[in-house]
């Protein structure tokens, strides 16, 4: 999996002329995506990635694509969209919206140590700061409104202990979101899915991050929580690894210091990050899209993480 829409070199020979990229030299489908059709594209000018969006419509794309451009222009290592001669970033190919972006070098680091987590924390803070003046706004579409609306849909499929936990956690998050502490948190565009498989490394050097299609405006701390819940956990138990947590948080704090309100909100937002992915994985498992061919991610991983945060807490933020 997964190239959902086939594209050949012949298909591109005329189409590519709208971009200042010269002739196409090679095209190779990427098997690892789950939402879109992605291809490594080599032209006379260099190496790129061609993406055909299978589910998002043209009008939904400007927030994501413009955000990548905004960040790339400010030196954050993210794929830079390539405009056509006419200045368009999104065009159509085989009836689907399509973009070409620069190709990042490196590979995912799926067994990170503290040194990798420090790189991720530093980049995340720089990304939050660089997006402060991004002019477009879109809420996090997997935020609390989505959580509140989706929890009842999966409830009939859950065991009694799962249902008790889900109901209680949604109520806890709704209460917390209404608090003065939550209102005081810094907000802006966030990646919201900065998992290990969305970041590239060459050795210990971070070369970039991609997959901005869950990005939206939310609290910066939520983004940190989502990132820590993936990069700093023992995958078997969901337990946080203290050295990796410290490395990621210290590096983030050095670039964008945490505030007193964020210290209070840290544990609730770690729980919010775990809840968001537990619920989306439950939804994908129990309510798959029509003709869904993919093996859903395991929801119990994030249920374990959520229970671990509730029962054992988490290391405090640096101050
Ligand atoms: N700009 C890029 N540079 C290098 N590799 C990329 C880039 N964008 C995507 N990829 C590769 O394509 C794969 C699938 O991309 P991803 O955005 O995760 O797809 P999907 O949105 O379909 O899940 C990634 O795992 C990565 O290997
Ligand atoms: N990170 C999410 C799923 C999103 O998939 P991606 O490949 O687009 O990052 C999860 O693990 O549930």
Summarize the structure in short.
The protein is of the alpha+beta class. It is built from ten helices and nine strands. The structure holds adenosine-5'-diphosphate and ligand LJ64HWYM.
Structural commentary:
This is Homoserine kinase. Pathway: Amino-acid biosynthesis; L-threonine biosynthesis; L-threonine from L-aspartate: step 4/5. Its EC number is 2.7.1.39. One of its GO terms (molecular function) is homoserine kinase activity. It comes from Massilia hydrophila. The structure is a single chain. With 319 residues, this protein is an alpha+beta fold. The protein has two domains: 9-102, Phosphorylase Kinase, domain 1; 114-312, Aminoglycoside 3'-phosphotransferase, Chain: A, domain 2 (Alpha-Beta Complex). 43% of the residues lie in helices and 15% in strands. The chain contains ten helices and nine strands. The protein has helices spanning 9-15, 62-73, 114-130, 144-154, 160-177, 180-183, 220-231, 242-255, 260-286, 299-312; strands spanning 24-29, 37-43, 46-52, 91-93, 96-102, 187-190, 199-202, 205-209, 216-219. The strands form three sheets. The chain has a five-stranded antiparallel β-sheet, covered by helices on one side. It has a two-stranded antiparallel sheet with strand order 6-9. A hairpin with a 2-residue loop joins strand 4 and strand 5. Helix 4 runs antiparallel to helix 5 and helix 4 packs parallel to helix 9. The termini are far apart. The model has no long low-confidence stretch (mean pLDDT 95). Adenosine-5'-diphosphate is lined by residues 30, 32-36, 38, 49, 79, 101, 103-104, 197, 210-211, 213.
């Amino acid at each position: 999996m997964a190239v959902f829409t086939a594209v050949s070199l012949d298909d591109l020979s005329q189409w590519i002329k709208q971009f200042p990229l010269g002739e196409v030299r090679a095209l190779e489908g990427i098997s690892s995506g789950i939402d879109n059709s992605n291809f490594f594209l080599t032209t006379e000018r260099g190496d790129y990635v061609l993406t055909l969006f299978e589910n998002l419509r043209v009008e939904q794309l400007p927030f994501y694509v413009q955000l990548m451009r905004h960040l790339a222009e400010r030196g954050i290592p993210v794929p830079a969209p390539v405009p056509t001669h006419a200045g368009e970033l999104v065009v159509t190919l085989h009836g689907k919206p399509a973009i070409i972006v620069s190709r990042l070098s490196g590979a995912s680091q799926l067994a990170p140590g503290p040194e990798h987590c420090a790189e991720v924390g530093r980049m995340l803070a720089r990304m939050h700061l660089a997006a402060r003046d991004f002019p477009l706004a879109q809420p996090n579409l997997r935020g609390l409104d989505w959580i509140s609306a989706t929890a009842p849909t999966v409830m009939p499929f859950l065991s009694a202990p799962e249902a008790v936990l889900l109901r209680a956690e949604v109520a806890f998050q709704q209460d917390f979101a209404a608090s003065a502490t939550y209102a005081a948190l810094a907000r802006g565009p966030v990646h919201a899915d900065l998992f290990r498989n969305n970041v590239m490394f060459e050795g210990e050097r971070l070369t970039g991050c991609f997959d901005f299609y869950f990005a939206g405006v939310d609290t910066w701390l939520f983004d940190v929580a989502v990132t820590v819940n993936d990069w700093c956990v023992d995958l078997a138990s969901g337990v946080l690894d203290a050295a990796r947590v410290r490395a990621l948080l210290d590096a983030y704090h050095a670039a964008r210091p945490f505030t007193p309100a964020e210290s209070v909100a840290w544990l609730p937002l770690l729980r919010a990050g775990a809840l968001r992915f537990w619920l989306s994985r439950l939804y994908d498992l129990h309510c798959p899209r029509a003709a869904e061919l993919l093996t859903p991610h395991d929801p119990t991983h994030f249920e374990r993480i959520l229970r671990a945060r509730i029962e054992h807490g988490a290391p405090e933020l640096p101050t």
